[in-house]
């Protein structure tokens, strides 16, 4: 499930919808059997997101893998994170409650919005990988992480261990490195620092590794399988 949220300006509306389309294309092109739902434009409402997740909950079984990707703007008031949608926004707590009802044991949430780090505490859960574009809710600027997450779905070099599969951890590292390089190349102060949490600690790590214990679950989550020139995405 990919959701492109409210842009608030024509430029962002077009960008978020385009990113969501690219994500769907990467998934659909590699795995026609994957069940894919993309919400963008006026369909990206709180009711629409809830309905899509409830539909998944009815159809999924414990052996399935769920991937939820959020593209757009987010806000954080110091206590609560909200994903900006057409109409009422949805909070991280509401999302977590809906996701908890899905029987799929393996779950990945990639929140690519501004202030997305503020959602980690609510979204974290055993057997759920949470990736956010920012390390805290106070990083409020529009993010570029989504651009490089999409690149990880498209670029075979994201498969760093050359096992013909791109794990959630590999995609995170690829996109995180590209995000850092972007700000360095632009000679700009970085306003986003991607993090990953797969231990339900309520906070993410910028450099998950065996030393800090983060990333083991993400490393075993096959996000994208490479089959010759084709990409095979399990979602």
What does this structure look like?
It contains 7 helices and 12 strands. 46% of the residues are buried. With 235 residues, it is an alpha/beta fold. The radius of gyration is 16 Å and the shape is globular.
Shape: globular
From the alpha-carbon coordinates, what is the Rg to the nearest angstrom? 16 Å
Distance between the termini: 8 Å
Which structural class best describes the helix and strand composition? alpha/beta
What is the helix content? 25-40%
Given the structure, what is the number of helices? 7
- Number of β-strand runs: 12
Q: How much is the average pLDDT?
A: 93
Written as H for each helix and E for each strand, in order along the chain, the element string is: EHEHEEEEHEHEHEHEHEE
Q: What is the percentage of strand-forming residues?
A: 15-25%
**Sheet with most strands:** 6 strands, mixed
Low-confidence stretches: 228-235
Strand order within the widest sheet? 2-1-3-7-8-10
Question: Tags for this entry?
Answer:
six-stranded mixed β-sheet; 34% helix; 235 residues; 20% strand; single chain; alpha/beta
Briefly, what is this?
Helices cover about 35% and strands about 20% of the residues. It has about 240 residues and is an alpha/beta fold. Strand 4 (about 75) and strand 5 form a beta hairpin.
Task: Please give the structural blueprint.
Blueprint: E1 2-4, H1 10-30, E2 38-39, H2 46-59, E3 65-71, E4 74-76, E5 81-83, E6 90-91, H3 92-100, E7 106-111, H4 120-123, E8 128-132, H5 145-154, E9 165-167, H6 168-185, E10 195-197, H7 216-219, E11 222-227, E12 230-233
Parallel strand pairs: 1-2, 1-3, 3-7, 7-8
Antiparallel strand pairs: 4-5, 5-6, 8-10, 9-11, 11-12
